[in-house]
Design goal:
The complex is a heterodimer.
Chain A (H helix, E strand, L loop, with lengths): L26 H6 L7 E2 L3 E2 L1 E2 L10 H14 L9 H20 L8 E4 L2 H16 L5 E5 L8 H10 L2 E5 L9 H8 L4 E7 L11 H10 L3 E5 L11 H4 L3 E5 L10 E5 L1 H6 L10 E4 L4 E3 L13 H17 L1 H20 L4 E4 L8 E6 L4 H10 L2 E2 L1 E3 L4 H7 L4 E5 L6 H19 L3
Helix pairs in contact in A: 2-10, 3-10, 4-5, 11-14, 12-14
Chain B lengths: L2 H4 L2 H8 L12 E7 L4 E10 L2 E8 L4 H14 L4 H15 L7 H4 L15 H18 L4
Helix pairs in contact in B: 2-3, 3-6, 4-6
The chains are: A alpha/beta, B alpha+beta.
Chain lengths: ~425, ~140
């Protein structure tokens, strides 16, 4: 555990010499970059932050970068011709280059800064969906989608008379690939949109294979990568999807910034999303022409500091190594699954052979809200609720679940702290009256 | 504040043995209320005769706070004149939101839920059944 204090406010990550077997992972060093983790709450209990699928904490280098930006470089981008504007623009453009490289995008024209995953998906639903979908066209989604990859398609489907189809979730938390193939065979599917990693079940979907199948059926593919980009190497060229959306705040960056990757040829043919400044070429009183990519889809002053912060976060993650982060997350997840399995009356939702670090569960006799309240009292931050996946909750037959989600700065001792809190809550509600 | 103050024995008792948690066949009104933060759902059924609440029942699975609140509420409201019930609803919701002081004599057992006001994230848990019954009464007897 980090010692905290101002001497740790500087990032100290260095490339570790790689060993041939398990990757070296110095959690003490890592946690020193996240001062927020090193605090005692509720009568001196060590904070254990296990709500990373909701948002991650930010390393000092990202937090301090915001301060540096506003104190030394703040100006609007791509407009003014003075020193500060040049500094801000250069850093903003650099951030875009870093992000394009981080997800393996072929160039910076294909990566659009958004407010987050939700805005990215809405952009595609609006600019692609409203232009290219027609009555009777089909959109294939899955039962495990977050509301943000469901509701935008409901709106566009209603408007255009398109039909939504859903790939069922099987008992182990994987998608029914047979049904997926059958749905694609209708010949009317124009779009397949699915999550890479489920925020509820943890399931890692075979997105590369699913993309290839959809393409064979002539459909465009959107991948919701909100839960995958933060903790594994994601490469859009390898997946070969047409769109991929994710958020900055789930990968160490500030809130209010995210990214949409889009295949250039599609982005070129789409109409703008938001209209106004920054996204135009020439404007007359009665008409306008659009700016070149990616500015065509970036109306208004962007979150400049947020974009720079996301670039910094990507560099920080890359220095540790996405493979190292993934391996450590897998190890922690296995440990957590084993610890939770020891607790009688606890049921985990999601047993896919390939799963990430979001673990949803229910505890017999303890409602998720009460569970989260007890955990909080023991210093453990977990999520309780429908996790923005109400249809999936109905499928699982529960109104809500509790969810612990790990990231590379978490420790096995924090999982132990969670297990102890669960036992305490069970005991409390089992005894008395 | 300790959790024992939030989850008092009386609340745990109502959570484990909820009163009036079953369908009401002869209900005149049925209201469904959702808690969008957690996905909990409550169905409230009520019957009013000559300006008096003759029966209130609820269905749904919720947390300890929402179940206890619904259970205690139904016990209290059965037999109460509609106008008095409206005052109690307004007082109780105001109390839990921290907007009102309420005479402990008026609260009675319901005072056990007062601790919820220290937990802003749980306010909706305690008040959702009260909003449901308010909607139900307004449908049967629109306020003057």
């Amino acid at each position: 555990m980090g010692e905290g204090g101002s001497k740790h406010l500087k990032t100290t990550i260095k490339e570790e010499p790689k060993r041939p077997t398990a990757p070296v992972f110095d959690t003490v060093k890592i946690r020193a970059d996240f001062p927020i983790l090193n605090q005692l709450i509720h009568d001196k209990k060590q904070l254990a932050y296990l709500d990373n699928a909701a948002t991650t904490q930010k390393p000092a280098i990202v937090v301090c970068g915001l301060c540096d930006y506003y104190q030394a470089f703040n100006a609007n981008v791509h407009r003014s011709l003075h020193y500060l504007a040049e500094q801000a623009t250069q850093r903003f453009d650099d951030a875009r280059k870093k992000m394009a490289a981080f997800i393996g995008a072929p160039n910076t024209r294909s990566v659009i800064f958004t407010r987050g995953t939700t805005e990215g998906i809405n952009l595609v639903a609006w600019s692609w969906g409203r232009k290219f979908l027609q009555a009777g066209d089909e959109i294939v989604l899955t039962e495990m989608e977050h509301h943000s990859n469901l509701v935008p398609w409901q709106l566009v489907a209603r408007e255009k008379g398109a039909v939504l189809r859903f790939v069922p979730v099987l008992d182990d938390g994987t998608l029914d690939q047979d049904v997926y193939a059958r749905l694609l065979a209708s010949g009317r599917v124009k779009l397949a949109a699915f999550t890479h990693v489920s925020n509820v079940l943890g399931t890692i979907n075979p997105v590369k294979k699913m993309t290839a199948l959809a393409h064979k059926a002539g459909a465009v593919v959107l991948v919701d990568a909100a839960q995958s980009v933060p903790n594994r190497a994601v490469n859009v060229v390898d997946i070969a999807c047409d769109f991929l959306a994710f958020s900055g705040h789930k990968m160490l960056a500030p809130t209010g910034i995210g990214m949409l990757y889009g295949r250039e040829s599609l982005l070129e043919r789409m109409d703008p999303f938001l209209a106004g400044g920054e996204m135009i070429n020439r404007v007359d009183l009665d008409r306008a022409t659009w700016a070149d990519l990616p500015q065509k889809f970036e109306a208004g002053t962007p979150s400049i500091a947020g974009a720079i912060g996301m670039g910094t976060a990507a560099t920080y993650l890359s220095k540790i190594g996405m493979d190292v982060i993934e391996a450590y997350e897998q190890k922690l997840t296995r440990y957590a699954m084993a610890r939770l399995a020891e607790i009688p009356g606890l049921r985990v939702f999601g047993h896919a052979p390939e799963r990430g670090g979001a673990i949803s569960f229910e505890v017999e006799g303890v409602h998720p809200h009460d569970m989260a309240q007890f955990a909080d009292r023991e210093g453990v931050a977990i999520r309780a609720g429908h996790l923005c996946a109400q249809p999936l909750m109905r499928k699982l037959g529960v109104p809500a679940v509790s969810r612990a989600s790990v990231y590379f700065y978490n420790l096995e001792s924090e999982i132990d702290q969670l297990a102890a809190a669960i036992l305490k809550a069970k005991e409390f509600f089992a005894h008395g009256t | 504040m300790e959790l024992d103050d939030l989850y008092q024995d009386l609340i745990l008792d109502h959570f484990k043995h909820p009163r009036n948690q079953r369908p009401l066949a002869e209900a005149e009104v049925l209201v469904d209320e959702e808690n969008p933060t957690c996905g909990d759902h409550i169905r409230l059924m009520a019957k009013v005769e000559q300006g008096k609440i003759v029966d209130v029942k609820f269905e749904g699975k919720g947390c300890a706070i929402s179940t206890a609140s619904a259970s205690m509420m139904t016990e209290r409201l059965i037999g109460m004149p509609v106008e008095a019930a409206r005052r109690l609803i307004s007082d109780f919701v105001g109390l839990i939101r921290g907007e009102k002081e309420v005479d402990p004599d008026e609260l009675g057992d319901l005072a056990a839920l007062e601790g919820v006001k220290q937990y802003p994230m749980r306010v909706k848990c305690a008040t959702m059944c009260w909003h449901a019954v308010e909607t139900a009464l307004n449908r049967i007897h629109p306020p003057a």
